[in-house]
Amino acid sequence: MSASSPDETRLRLRAMLDAQFAVLLAVLLIAAAAGGGLVYATHVDPGTEAREETVSSFTVETAYDHSAEVTEPNSVFETGTVLDGRETYFTQVAPVLDVAVETTYAASSASDVDVRFDSVLVIRNVGEEGGTVYWSEREPLASEAVSDVEPGETAGSSFALNSSAVDATAAAIEEELGASPGETEMFVVTDVAVEGTINGESTSYARTVELGLDHGGDTYAVDDPGVWSDTAERTRTVAVERSYGPLRSIGGPLLLAVGLLGSGALAYARRERDLALTPAERDYLSYSDDRSEFAEWITTFRLPASVHERPEAEAESLRDLVDFAIDNDTGVVEDPRTGAYHAVSGEFVYTYRPPSPPAVAPEEGADDDPPAGDVDDADPSDDAGAGGDAGIDPDDRD
Which InterPro entries match (predicted)? Predict the structure, then answer.
């Protein structure tokens, strides 16, 4: 039965696994241990971590609402028309600005909640960027308190501002002082206070909001800040089960599986498959390495029969034959018929016969032929027709 050459890659893999068996087994067992630790810490006993949990929240929103009624006849607006939510109003036809400040709150539960509003008009003269206040006048506008306000209910306070009167007050102060070194500005300040039992706890909230006014003679502008919103949360620290990302949740079991399966497969391969190479397999790999390394020094052609009539010396390895050929300035010839390697120098032919590839299980029905390496003893006279002593020395090849 004929034997086919084994897969050289498998031979080298076996050699590597045998040489590094202890290291590979240690690595796989460490991986299995690490994976087991990750699996236990992630899925079996993940432990706990402290987390802040919102028990209740309390939100307060405050906003200004402003409008002006047209009181003077004109060709554009009918008398009694209410102009609301504008940035600019007309002093001549709607001089009085009606302002309401409104507050609402949201909470899970509340009782005895009172909301108080204190609004004042501030007229002052300030330097550049408001750094210096040269004079300031405060005029109370309204102070109101609303009791028993429920969550979601709106509490409010209202007052009116006569733009002409406000402008006149500012002009009178400037005239009294005889100078106006900075810029005169006007705005409404409202202090909002909310007190009561909210979400089961005694709560006190305070916020100051402002509504800007800018008098320009025939018009006055309102700088509305919009809705002021504040939220206060009551939290508690709770212990929750620690959670991990997919890298650890999946990586732990995967590492454990790779470690266990890999170490098991490695131990099975060593026990059942015998990873250690036979001397013949090691010799074959050594020859294969030399053949690849010295390929450039080797030529392939059939030698004439006369070469084999010379005295023959045997080389222990292909490396030894190549070294000899280099030292003696001759070439190494691979005979494709026999697979042997020859170097001709002087009266001798120096020969290295490579090991036969280690046999593997033959296919069924294959012919029982001898290995290719055993053809070396064929009758050299078969090549007598090659003629002459060509190939005896590289210089005679021409």
Answer: DUF5305
Distance CA 301, CA 28 (A): 50
* Least confident window among 2-16, 66-80, 136-150: 2-16
Judge if 211 and 298 occupy the same domain.
no
Asked if residues 238 and 21 have their Cβ atoms less than 8 Å apart, the reply is no
* Structural domain that includes position 248: 8-47+242-272
Mean pLDDT of the chain: 83
Residue labelled with tokens 């209202």:
158
Q: Bridge-partner residues for 313, per DSSP?
A: 350
Give the contacts of 16 (CB within 8 A, at least 6 positions apart). Answer: none
For residues 290 and 379, membership in a common domain is answered with yes
Q: Which tokens sit at 88? A: 């600019």
Burial of 347 (C-beta count, 10 Å sphere; 0-12/13-18/19+): exposed
Q: Is residue 369 part of a domain?
A: yes
3-state secondary structure of 214: strand
Q: Verify that 318 and 195 share a domain, yes or no.
A: no
User: 27, 20 in Cβ contact below 8 A?
Assistant: no
Between residues 267 and 228, the one the model is more confident about: 228
Q: Is residue 134 part of a domain?
A: yes
Q: Which of 104-113, 141-150, 160-169, 364-373 shows the lowest mean pLDDT across its residues?
A: 364-373
Report the distance separating Cα 255 and Cα 261, nearest Å. Answer: 10
Are 217 and 94 part of one and the same domain? yes
**Contact present, 344 and 299 (Cβ < 8 Å):** no
Q: How many domains is the chain built from?
A: 3
What is the per-residue pLDDT across 17-29, written as a single tens digit (0 to 9) for each?
Answer: 878 878 888 998 8
Q: Are 2 and 367 in contact (CB under 8 A)?
A: yes
| Span 377-392, pLDDT tens digits | 444 434 433 333 333 3
80 lies in the same domain as 199:
yes
Count of Cβ atoms closer than 10 Å to residue 333 Cβ: 23
Query: 343 and 331 in one domain?
Result: yes
Phi and psi angles of residue 342, each rounded to the nearest 5 degrees, phi first: -130, 145
Whether residue 1 lies inside any domain: the answer is no
Instruction: Answer yes or no: are the C-beta atoms of 355 and 271 closer than 8 Å.
Output: no
Q: Is residue 31 part of a domain?
A: yes
